Amino acid sequence: MPELPEVETTKRGISPFLKNETVVSAVVRNPSLRWPVSAEVDELKNNNVLDVIRRGKYIIIQLDEGSLLIHLGMSGSLRVVDASVPVRKHDHIDIVLGSGKVIRYNDPRRFGCLLWTSIWQNHKLISSLGLEPLSDEFTGEFLFDATRGKRVSVKQFIMNSKIVVGVGNIYANESLFLAGIHPESVVGEVSEERVFELVDVIKSVLCKAIDQGGTTLKDFVGSDGKPGYFQQELHVYGRGGEACNKCDSELIEIKQNNRSSVFCGNCQN
């Protein structure tokens, strides 16, 4: 599933083609995504694009009369193509621009969504989201205060989107390894110093992943159709049974909440 760096990469890729453009129309070939495509999208025309932003794993295209709320699901992608480019299998939606370009949504598994909302900040999918991890508000003080008295694992806690958004499984694994924290540690017992370090590491890992275009795992490509390259930097994720690149100990792989956790029993405690 595309995580925050992949979504941010996509947002940055499509933004220059959308900002200050006019949406001429939308073509919905298959409305049956995770939720049915909003009926208003079919009637979309002559709306100016005011901004393109990311909130968590959602891309929001702000228009004169409302906003398009897009989630890429497990296998979705947005590409910028000329209107003359032939439609491929699983190209479900086109947002046709006055420039002659098209923002084309492709989603083989159809777990993504494209919804219309008048005030995106109040939409039920957005309103309960936690802090952005790259924001000034996400600090060591914030996370330390939020963790006190909590008995869940530290990995489960930092992946809770009501606390902080976008720290998905790949980047949670990597951040905990670099911070030297065992993923099963009780979050409320992690020291203040280590929580502060974890916040710094999360920010660093996400920024580096964004700079490299995200991580390619199975389906992800950016808006230009190119893969991300952060996979080449992975220390632990997907490397269970291999040697730790810090101490050469065998990396351990376990399941936490039906997700893979890979860690070094020597380096993380």
Descriptive notes:
The chain is an alpha+beta fold and 269 residues long. The chain has 2 domains: 4-122, Alpha-Beta Barrel (N-terminal domain of MutM-like DNA repair proteins), CATH 3.20.190.10; 140-263, Helicase, Ruva Protein, domain 3, CATH 1.10.8.50. The chain has helices at 4-18, 39-42, 140-147, 154-158, 169-179, 192-211, and strands spanning 22-28, 47-55, 58-63, 67-71, 77-82, 91-97, 101-106, 113-117, 252-256, 259-263. Strand 2 (47-55) and strand 3 form a beta hairpin. Helix 1 crosses helix 6 (192-211) and helix 5 crosses helix 6. The longest helix has 20 residues, at 192-211. It is elongated. The protein starts with a helix and ends in a 6-residue tail after the last strand. The relative contact order is 0.15.
Topology:
Elements: H1 4-18, E1 22-28, H2 39-42, E2 47-55, E3 58-63, E4 67-71, E5 77-82, E6 91-97, E7 101-106, E8 113-117, H3 140-147, H4 154-158, H5 169-179, H6 192-211, E9 252-256, E10 259-263
Antiparallel strand pairs: 1-2, 1-6, 2-3, 3-4, 4-8, 5-7, 6-7, 9-10
